[in-house]
């Protein structure tokens, strides 16, 4: 795992929360049906040996593992050192780096190159809304022409709202689905399909959330 990039004070708090949550994340979200389906879709759609970026990879489960088991070359990035330490153990065939989504770049000293595919599952939730369009444009620039991206968000009309999460407080943003589609298209992506799942964490009495999975292609 490479050294830490510059991280804003706001997102440092997010990273520390996920450092503390660690393995309890997978215990609280044991099924991940939508993420499993989208990860499988990406793994199978790409040519064998494709280079794939897993943004906000967390513990590496399930997505980085799915992609690596299909023989793809996987780079996972996350803000949380604790999550990445678990990912390295869970998916030794993949590479992991601690990089803020705001610092992802193709070229330069910290550049990570281009990719045939990107998995971005719930990572954009951690950004204030004004930063999400720029993050999507960065992901678009990291994809080779015709490259594929599987993207998921929780449907919610929120902007940098503080919420309790597994004993900690994190800040999250979201869109209603029509606005989400527009933001993704404005970043240069073609949306080729969409799935929605209703999901609630294990051992929780909170109402189920609606998870939106968009199947995207770089235009």
From TrEMBL:
One of its GO terms (molecular function) is methyltransferase activity. The keyword Amino-acid biosynthesis does not apply. It holds the Pfam family Methyltransf_23. GO terms for biological process: antibiotic biosynthetic process; methylation. Keywords: Methyltransferase, Transferase. InterPro entries: SAM-dependent_MTases_sf. It comes from the Bacteria. This is Methyltransferase domain-containing protein.
